[in-house]
Amino acid sequence: MRLTLNRRPSLGGATIGELLEDGAHLCYTLEDEIRERVGEPVGNWKIRGATAIPAGEYRVTLEHSPRFGLDTLTICNVPGFTGVRIHGGNTHEHTEGCPLLGLRVTDTTIVGGTSAPAVALVKARVRAALQAGQHVLLTINNPTAVA
User: Fold this and answer.
1) Is 69 helix (H, G, I), strand (E, B) or coil?
2) Are the C-beta atoms of 30 and 18 separated by less than 8 Å?
3) Whole-structure pTM over 0.90, yes or no?
4) What mean pLDDT value characterizes the chain?
5) 55: which residues sit within 8 A by CB, 6+ positions away?
6) From start to end of 1-147, where are the E strands?
């Protein structure tokens, strides 16, 4: 299974994106501000709790999280970050670098009541792929121009 997260330029500390499964729209994402400076170590540009993870390709698994419980969507081996989960929330204050999911968004937030259904949708798709013996890969793309 291939997931793709296409980010929009950051606005007001938040970054909205679209999550695709094999090219088809699944839901929207909300992350912290993109601060990445390509070619520089993460430690040079990361602001703890206020920075989107680097663009790239990552494996996604379902793991136990003390904070989010069993079968939490987890992005593995993110340079300079630990415990990166895909979870629910509505504003960039609800994340510390993790992508949040929602079915509807504004320019800077996830519309209330749409996050939990989006998480359930993506988790079900990932669970089905993993149970079928597939690897789940997530490619994160930054916008061409970062605001």
Assistant:
1) strand
2) no
3) yes
4) 95
5) 7, 36, 140, 141, 142
6) 2-7, 14-21, 24-32, 56-65, 69-75, 84-86, 100-102, 136-141
